[in-house]
Design goal:
Layout (H helix, E strand, L loop, with lengths): L5 H21 L3 H25 L4 H26 L3 H23 L9 H22 L5 H29 L13
Helix pairs in contact: 1-2, 1-3, 2-3, 2-5, 3-4, 3-5, 4-6, 5-6
Length: 188
């Protein structure tokens, strides 16, 4: 059924929406850029809802969805770096973690392993990252003079950094079998 491919199409659409959003921001059309990023975030919610609701979950979708999420998040943090002077080292650490663990996931698949699904901490990280970026888009696109919102974005960036590094550590610890499954909030 053609509709069963809709979640994967929505995943791919996020890439184009986020790139277009970044281009609008860079050209000075911040409102349009914020709206396109908002559509990209909404498509993430929508594709997950459709896949679960109608059973349109595929191995390809399990792989492409987190990759496109990471792409959108990295573009969002790059935008915050450019427009809000978020420290470059924070962007580099977040980008390095996302790229390295995505490469690791692809390597596992290439060697015949299963798709490594996101655990609790990975999902928490992505949620905080997207909320932080959404607040940043709201600040940049609509409310540029809000001191409170600006500081909330900056705090969100640091929380995102901590969760990004922590969730990466937890995933690698779990995958290498050095402890119990900490991804589901279990302790040693």
């Amino acid at each position: 059924m053609v509709l069963s491919y809709l979640p994967n199409i929505l995943s791919f659409s996020r890439i184009f929406l986020a790139v277009a959003g970044l281009c609008f921001f860079l050209s000075g059309a911040s409102v349009y850029g914020a709206l396109l990023f908002a559509l990209a975030f909404f498509s993430d919610f929508l594709d997950g809802f459709l896949a679960r609701r109608f059973g349109w979950i595929t191995e390809f979708g399990k792989l492409i969805d987190p990759i496109t999420d990471k792409f959108v998040v990295l573009l969002g943090f790059f935008l915050l770096y450019l427009k809000m002077d978020i420290p470059l080292w924070i962007f580099v650490l977040i980008a390095a973690r996302e790229v390295l663990l995505t490469a690791y996931r692809l390597w596992v698949i290439q060697r015949g392993g299963n798709v490594i699904p996101a655990g609790f901490w990975g999902k928490a990280k992505t949620t905080v990252q997207m909320i932080t970026i959404a607040m940043g888009l709201l600040y940049l696109g609509f409310l540029g003079s809000s001191y409170l919102l600006e500081n909330a974005v900056r705090l969100g960036v640091y929380i995102s950094l901590v969760l990004t590094l922590f969730s990466g550590f937890i995933m690698l610890k779990y995958e290498y079998g050095q402890g119990k499954d900490l991804r589901d909030n279990k302790s040693r």
